[in-house]
Every structure is written in structure tokens, then in C-alpha cells.
């Protein structure tokens, strides 16, 4: 019941975002600025606020971080191998690999972690997300460049600049420093962060809904299902098996499992467009994985709960 009480409201807001966009309440000219507010201000404020108040000695779990990163790396390699086996070539291969491994941590993963696990689970998820985002971005760029030999993708300096400018990574690192050195946060700043944090998740979920495209998803569904299965089934399944193999407790690994089970990130479309790849495939993968993740999240949380 607790899982349904978490997943249903989250995806109800996503669906509401789709309706609002269709009815004109969230027109295209609104989506860009709203997305920037959430991405650069609201979610970073929420992450910094939560991590800065946490005790890192209690919340950081090295084994969970290592297993999570290892599982994510294997998912990219599996997708890469599948493309070679099925002779998927050109830009479609790079976007397939990215869609199979690049999870929507900031908008979907952290939302599920917060509403299902509470503040403590959100802190742990935020710590893992900072490192996982770095890995995802590096592997995605490598996959896209390897399958776009005629295109010049972002170089090492551009990638480093993008990582250092990623607001989720920066806010997580800033929160870690504030917590590690016990830097006091003035009350007026803390309350301002509280207000800004309240904007983060509801707006993020509405924006995810507004980005869904059922038409594109329908036209490319059979092509994207391989990437969706790797992202929503193989990747979290691999992570859960490794957590269990190394005797990690559910309370410790659930934040990592939720992040691994997150659907394809919307940034996959942006990166595909930058590399002049198959953007329709990216949109279809994002839409399909987001919708299917309502069921897959429930499955993995129920399964993990039985182990607990």
C-alpha cells in the first residue's frame, strides 16, 4: 500500500503535466524557463539543504556507491554489445546506448526517493546521484562520439566544464563540504532554501509530463523497447542482485536501486540533437521508459521489500 501511495501520486502529477501541456496551461514558451528554474535553482537548493544537514558518516555507504556505479557501467556495455550483435549502426546505436543507461535522476529518481524513503533516503540518493551523474555523462558522450565518426562531439575540456557546471553535482558537493566541515547555515538562508525546495519536485514532475509524446512513442515503440528493457529491467535487476550478493541491507541499498530504476533522462534528447542524431528515437525512449517506469518502480520496490 505504501508503494502505491508513493508511485500513483507521482505519476498522477506527471500525467497532469501532459494534460496541462495539451490544454495550453503549459505552453512551449513556458517550459524552457520553468525547466531552468527547477534544474538550476529548485532541485540544487533541495539537495544542498538535505545533504548539508546530514551526518555523512551515517548516510554515506561506499559499497552501495561502488555497486551502483558498476551496474550502470555494465548496462552501457551490454547496450553497446547488443548494438554490435544486432548490427545497429550510425547515430541510432549511440542514442540506443545512451537511452539504455542514462537515467533521469534529478527529476524522477530523486522524487521517488524523497516520497518513498523520506528525508534520510533522499540524502543518500542525493549523494549517490552526484557520482552517478558524472559517470552517466562521461559514458553517454563516449557512446555518442564512437557512433558519430563524422561529427565532432564535445571534447574533454567541454565535458569537464559541463560536469563542473551541472547544478546537481555542484549542489551535492557543496552540501558534502558544508556537512563535513559543519558549516552553520544562517536561519534566513535555511528558510529560503526550504521555500525554494518546495518548488522542485512538483514542478519537475509536471515538466516531465509536458515533455511526453505519445505519437512519437507509438511510431518508434518496437525500436526503443530493447533500450527500455535494459534501462528498467536489466540495470536495476543487476544492481539488486549485487546488493544482495554483498549482503547490503535494504535500507542502505534502496536509494541506489531507485536511481538505477529511473527511466531515460530527458537530457538524452538534448545530447542527441547536439550530435545531430535520431531525436525521434530519443523522444520515444524517454516517453516509453517514463510511462513504463510507473510499473517497474512498483515491481522493484515490492521485490526489495520482500527481501527486507
Tell me what the structure shows.
The chain is 83% helix and 0% strand. The chain has helices at residues 2-22, 28-52, 56-59, 62-85, 91-101, 105-146, 156-164, 167-180, 187-211, 214-245, 250-260, 267-274, 279-307. It is built from 13 helices and no strands. The chain is globular. The protein is mainly α. α4 (62-85) packs across α6 and α12 (267-274) packs antiparallel against α13 (279-307). It has one domain: Na+/H+ antiporter like fold, CATH 1.20.1530.
Secondary-structure blueprint:
Elements: H1 2-22, H2 28-52, H3 56-59, H4 62-85, H5 91-101, H6 105-146, H7 156-164, H8 167-180, H9 187-211, H10 214-245, H11 250-260, H12 267-274, H13 279-307
Helix pairs in contact: 1-6, 1-9, 1-13, 2-6, 2-8, 2-9, 4-5, 4-6, 4-10, 4-11, 5-6, 5-10, 5-13, 6-8, 6-9, 6-11, 10-11, 10-13, 11-13, 12-13
Order of helices and strands: HHHHHHHHHHHHH
The overall pLDDT average reads 90
Q: What is the total tally of β strands?
A: 0
Number of domains: 1
The major β-sheet equals: none
Quote the CATH topology.
Na+/H+ antiporter like fold
Radius of gyration: 18 Å
Q: Which CATH architecture?
A: Up-down Bundle
CATH class category label: Mainly Alpha
Shape, per Cα inertia axes: globular
Q: Please, how many helices?
A: 13
Structure classification: mainly alpha
- What percent of residues are in strands? under 5%
